[in-house]
Design goal:
alpha+beta, Dipeptide-binding Protein, domain 3, 12 helices, 22% helix
Length: 539
C-alpha cells in the first residue's frame, strides 16, 4: 500500500514525543537495530538529507543528476560513467572521437537498449535530450554545446560552440530521456528511462522507492529495491537507533556516538571548505557593489594566512577527526597539482606579515600606518560546521595578530558580499571545470566569478586545457594553471583562496551490508553514496 516503506508510525510518534534513546544511548542486542535488514535481503533503506530531494523531480533537463550534488541519475542511462579513479568509462556509448579543432564530438552508442516502455533508445533520443537540457537547464552550463544531432540510429554528433576537452565528464551525468514520451510538465514525477532502476513511488517530502529495471541491458542489480527516506539529521540518527533504516547519513557531531548493529563509515571526499581572499584593493563595481579588500589585496598577506592555518587542528576539533587537509579545490583528483600543499608554519606566516609591514603591537594585534589588520569573516547561517570552522579559523588568525569578526549571512546576499569579504564556501566536483569556475576571468569584467582575481597565465593554461583533444593530456595543463614553477594559484603564486579541510562523508551502516567501493565523493552529502547501489549486497 502507499507509504508501506515509510518510517513506521511507531517511529514517527517516538520522534515527535522524543521517546527514543538519546544521542548518548547504545542499542542492545534486543533492539530493532540488531535485527537485520530493514526490509529484506534484496532491499536497502537509506536516509538522506531533505535537501537531497530533487525539487523538480527526476528530469535531467531540470537538474536531476547535476548541479553541485553531482551523481549518476540511476533511472536514466548516461553515455559515459566515471570510474572509481575518475577515469572515463562507457555506459550507453561504445566509443567517441573528437575533431582536430575540438568542435565536433562523434559518439557511437549501443543498439540493444530499450526504455522501460519497450521503445528502443536511439541516437535521436540522445540528441533530443542534450538539446532539451541545453534549452531548459538552469543548473548546468551548456553554453559550450551548439546543438546535437543524430547521424544515424547509433551515432550522435555534438557540435560545440568552443573546444571543451572535459565533455566526457558532462556526458557522465546527463540521463537520456525518450523523445516520444517526454513532457516537461510531467516527466519529473513519472520518468521513463533505461537505467538500472525505475521509479515506482515518490511521496514528496518523505520518500522515493526505486526498483530494479528487469530489462536493464547491463548486469542485473543485486539490490532489487532501494528506498530513500528524506530526514533531518537528528531524525536519521534516531531512525538508525530504531533499526528502521540500513544506511543513515550523519555528521561529525554524532561521530562519537555508537549504535548497536551499525558501523560508522567514513568516505573520502573532495567536499572542501575554504575562504575566498579578494585579491584587489577595495572599490565599487558598475553595479555599485563593494569589490576588493585592502588587507587581502596584498599577496604577502594571503600567503601568510595560508601558512597560518592549522588544518589538522580543525579536523581534530571541529570534524572529530573525520576529514583531511584541503590545499586546493581538487585535492587527490587526476588534475590536482601537489605543489598546492603547504605545512602549518605560524612563524613563517608572522615573518610574511612583518615583511608586508603589518607589525605586532602591544595589544596583540598588527598595525600598518595606524590601521589594524582585520578580517570580517562570513559564513552561511544554519550551517553549524561552517560556523565552527569559521570560528576556529578566526581564533588561529587572532594568534597571528589579525583581528576577526564573524557574521552569519544568507545566500541571498552572500555572493555579493564575498566580492569584498572572505566567505567560507563549499566546493568540489568530478570535473576540472571547478578550477575554471573559481579562477578564470569571465566576460568583460576581467575578474573571476566568485571573488576578485585575475591572472592571464592561469587563464591561458585553462583555455589550452579546454582546447585539448586529449582528455588525459589536458590534466597537465590544469596542473600548470595551479602552479607552473613561476605563477599560479598556490602558495608561491597568487593564493586567492585559502582551503581548510575536505569533509569526510559519514554514514551509519547496518552490520552485514556491504557497500561497494566508493569514488571520492564530490561536494554535497546526498545521492553520491548510492551511485553504485546496484552492486551493494547483504553478507
Amino acid at each position: 500500500m502507499k507509504g508501506k516503506y515509510l518510517v513506521s508510525l511507531f517511529l514517527a510518534a517516538a520522534l515527535a514525543a522524543g521517546t527514543l534513546t538519546g544521542c548518548g544511548g547504545n542499542s542492545s542486542a534486543g533492539d530493532p537495530a540488531a535485527e537485520g535488514p530493514a526490509q529484506g535481503t534484496d532491499t536497502v533503506v537509506v536516509a538522506m538529507d531533505p535537501n537531497s530531494e530533487p525539487a523538480s523531480g527526476f528530469d535531467p533537463a531540470f537538474g536531476w543528476g547535476a548541479g553541485e550534488h553531482v551523481h549518476e541519475p540511476l533511472i536514466q542511462s548516461t553515455l559515459t560513467v566515471t570510474n572509481t579513479d575518475l577515469t572515463i568509462g562507457y555506459d550507453l556509448a561504445t566509443g567517441y572521437t573528437v575533431s582536430e579543432d575540438g568542435l565536433t564530438w562523434t559518439v557511437t552508442i549501443r543498439d540493444d537498449v530499450s526504455f522501460t516502455d519497450g521503445e528502443p533508445l536511439t541516437a535521436e533520443d540522445v540528441a533530443f535530450t542534450y538539446n532539451t537540457v541545453k534549452s531548459s537547464s538552469s543548473v548546468n552550463d551548456f553554453t559550450m554545446l551548439d546543438y546535437a544531432e543524430a547521424a544515424d540510429e547509433t551515432t550522435v554528433v555534438f557540435h560545440m560552440t568552443r573546444p571543451f576537452s572535459i565533455w566526457p565528464y558532462t556526458m557522465a551525468i546527463v540521463g537520456i530521456v525518450p523523445e516520444h514520451a517526454y513532457d516537461p510538465a510531467t516527466y519529473g514525477s513519472n520518468p521513463i528511462g533505461s537505467g538500472r532502476y525505475t521509479l515506482v513511488q515518490w511521496d514528496r517530502g518523505q520518500q522515493v522507492i526505486l526498483e530494479a529495471n528487469p530489462d536493464y541491458y547491463g548486469e542485473a542489480p543485486k539490490m532489487r529495491r532501494v528506498v530513500i527516506l528524506f530526514m533531518e539529521e537528528d531524525a536519521a540518527f534516531l531512525a538508525a537507533q530504531a533499526g528502521q533504516v540500513d544506511v543513515a547519513y550523519t555528521s561529525a557531531t554524532y561521530s562519537d556516538q555508537t549504535i548497536g548493529g551499525y558501523t560508522l563509515a567514513a568516505y573520502d571526499s573532495v567536499d572542501n571548505r575554504g575562504f575566498n581572499l579578494p585579491a584587489i584593493s577595495s572599490g565599487t563595481d558598475e553595479e555599485g557593489r563593494l569589490v576588493g579588500n585592502d588587507f587581502t589585496a596584498d599577496v604577502l598577506v594571503r600567503r601568510a594566512i595560508n601558512l597560518g592555518v592549522d588544518r589538522q587542528e580543525m579536523i581534530d576539533h571541529v570534524l572529530n577527526g573525520h576529514g583531511s587537509p584541503a590545499y586546493s579545490v581538487c585535492d587527490n583528483l587526476p588534475w590536482y597539482n601537489p605543489a598546492s600543499e603547504v605545512s602549518y608554519d605560524p612563524e613563517g606566516a608572522a615573518a610574511l606579515l612583518d615583511e608586508a609591514g603589518w607589525l605586532l603591537s602591544d595589544d596583540g594585534y598588527r598595525y600598518r600606518d595606524g590601521v589594524r589588520a582585520e578580517l570580517d569573516l562570513l559564513y552561511s547561517t544554519g550551517d553549524s560546521v561552517r560556523q565552527a570552522l569559521c570560528a576556529d579559523f578566526a581564533s588561529q588568525m587572532e594568534e597571528l595578530g589579525i583581528a576577526c569578526t564573524l557574521e552569519g549571512v544568507g545566500w541571498d546576499t552572500a555572493y555579493d558580499r564575498a566580492l569584498s569579504q572572505p566567505l567560507i564556501w563549499g566546493w568540489g566536483a568530478h570535473t576540472p571545470m571547478e578550477l575554471y569556475n573559481l579562477y578564470h576571468t569571465i566576460g568583460d569584467t576581467g575578474s573571476a566569478q566568485y571573488s576578485p582575481y585575475a591572472n592571464d597565465a592561469v587563464d591561458r593554461y585553462m583555455d589550452q586545457a579546454l582546447a585539448s583533444t586529449d582528455l588525459e593530456a589536458s590534466y597537465e595543463l590544469w596542473q600548470l594553471a595551479q602552479w607552473d614553477g613561476t605563477t599560479g594559484v598556490t602558495q608561491e603564486g597568487d593564493i586567492p583562496w585559502v582551503w581548510l579541510v575536505n569533509v569526510d562523508h559519514l554514514y551509519w551502516v547496518r552490520d552485514g551490508l556491504q557497500i561497494a567501493e566508493q569514488k571520492i565523493h564530490p561536494h554535497g552529502h546526498g545521492w553520491s553514496i548510492v551511485n553504485n547501489v546496484d552492486k551493494w549486497e547483504w553478507k
